[in-house]
Amino acid sequence: MRMLWFTILLVSPLFGQLQSGSLTVTATRSTVVAPNLVQFTASVATGIDATQDDVLAMMAPAGITVGSLTGVSGTASRLTWGFAWLVPLPSLQDAIAALQALRVQFSVTGMRVSDDLLAATACPAADLLADARAQARKMAEAIRAGLGPVLTVSNPAAMSPAGVTLAGQFGFFIGVLAGIPEVPALSPSTLRNCSLTVTFGLNP
Amino acid sequence: MRTFLSLLTLCTFAPPAIAQLDSNSVTVYASRNASLQADQVVFAVAVDTGLDATLNDVVAVLQNAGITLSNFASVRTQLGVIPLPAQGPLPSLQQVEWTFGLPVPISKLADTASLLKTVQQNVVSNNKSWTMSFSVQGTQVSLPLQQSQVCSVADLVADARLQAQKLAGAAGMTLGNVLALSGSTSMTQPGSGVYLGSSLSSFLVSSPFLPPQLCSATVKFALK
Questions:
Q1: Which end is more exposed in chain A, N or C (fewer Cβ atoms within 10 Å of the end residue's Cβ)?
Q2: Chain A partners of B48 at a C-beta cutoff of 8 Å?
Q3: Phi and psi for A2 in degrees, rounded to 5?
């Protein structure tokens, strides 16, 4: 019972409104991260008697494992095995060569940023704190108050996805100037978002 | 069981109840949108090569157009399915399409298009099996322009005060000092890639004023 009240008292401030005598700023910096993984897909057709192990053994020299198998479909006499996997950009030519050696038809369907690269992109805590302090000074000036010490610092980014690929349509073709084959539409940049929420004291 | 349900109810409803608005205060959220005029046009440049070409090979032929590795956007192929074991020769030539995003100032639209046409001719003449194409994808607000916009906190506080005065008046009270304030600040930096915004707009379809930049603040005033 004591623990329960303790929990309630701890949780309550999380739902709270602004604390009087404080100034809270959330500073965010987004960094554009270049894609580093190439997306491959392949489909392999076999007879109805082929097993998953048979197909995986056949595809193994290209580095394809059971984790890349996306599905199987077929008819009474024929099966189609679908695969999708990611390859680091520097290994693109090796992957293509391996697939060609296997005489497998494949497609490169696009690119993405790896989770590791997103995670490795530094979040500049000192810069975020400086941004928050600069903004807080402006806000304090606007109400003719002085900025006090830092009361709390929290990292809301830890509670949200580290990287965000901006959603939405990326424009329209407004004319192919060159008058030759259509150019694929560009995807928006992938951003690594870092945020810091800082609460300062307010000196009247 | 009844005790447990009572405790569960308490856990669910007590925190918000405890965190109600402070007495003798009014809290107001104020926001302003600042429309920015797009200052960049974004070209998409695509080069189709054989399967043996590397990204560095492609960038090398595009460097005269000011394209570097950081402009690289995507790569793709278009291939079908053949039965295994394969019989006979492999299907006809497969190509890899490398795509780049090239944002330039709107004032450089014609010059860049002309430059890309020249590079296009060179690519084709120097690499017989390669083709190059480009298009204008639309416009966007550049990072420097986005970051040059200053949110007027004083205006936001004035908006909030006006709104709070109305609320206070409705309650038969008057507005006191600011008790607390919250807001935010954000910026985007180039990093390892080139910035291609999600709000790219067409010259023909959308307003050139993009995107709305939201400035906001939450202000808590004392009530007297």
A1: N
A2: 181
A3: -65, -40
Q: Measure CB to CB from residue A138 to each of B15, B75, B153 and give the nearest one.
A: B153
Residue A99's H or E segment, with its range, is helix A92-101
Q: In Å, how far from its chain's centre is CA A42?
A: 24
Please state, in angstroms and rounded to a whole number, the distance separating the CA atoms of residues A85 and A69: 8
In this structure, what token pair is assigned to residue B86? 């394969």
**Cα-Cα-Cα-Cα dihedral sign, residues B53, B56, B59, B60:** negative
**What is the ipTM metric for this complex?**
0.70
b (16+ CB within 10 A) / e for B35-64: ebebbbbbbbbbbbbebebebeebbebbee
Contact B44, A186 (CB under 8 A): yes
Residues 6+ apart with CB under 8 A from B185: A25, A26, A27, A28, A131, A132, A134, A135, B151
Nearest residue on chain B to A131, alpha-carbon basis:
B185
Residue with tokens 């038969």: B172
Closest residue in chain A to residue B205, using alpha carbons only = A172
Question: Which residues of B are less than 8 Å from A178 in CB distance?
Answer: 116-117, 120, 133-135
Interatomic CA distance for residues A21 and A143, integer angstroms: 12
Q: Does the distance separating the beta carbons of A171 and B201 come in below 8 Å?
A: yes
pLDDT at residue A7 above 80? no
Q: Give the burial string for A137-172 (b: 16+ CB within 10 Å, else e).
A: bbbbebbebebbeeeeeeeebeeeeebbeeeeebbb
Structure tokens at B51: 């399967």
Per-residue pLDDT band at B204 (split at 50, 70, 90): very low
Number of Cβ atoms within 10 Å of the Cβ of A111 = 22
DSSP for B51-92 reads TT--HHHHHHHHGGGT--GGGEEEEE------BSS--SSPPS
Q: In a 10 Å sphere around its CB, with 0-12 CB exposed, 13-18 middle and 19+ buried, how is residue A29 labelled?
A: buried
pTM (predicted TM-score): 0.73
Distance to chain B for A163, nearest Cα, Å: 13
| Distant-in-sequence, close-in-space partners of A129: CB < 8 Å, separation ≥ 6 | A27, A153, A196, A198
Task: Give the Cβ contact number of residue B176 at 10 Å.
Answer: 15
- What is the number of alpha carbons within 13 Å of residue A26 lying toward its C-beta? 14
Shortest CA distance from A34: residue in chain B: B193
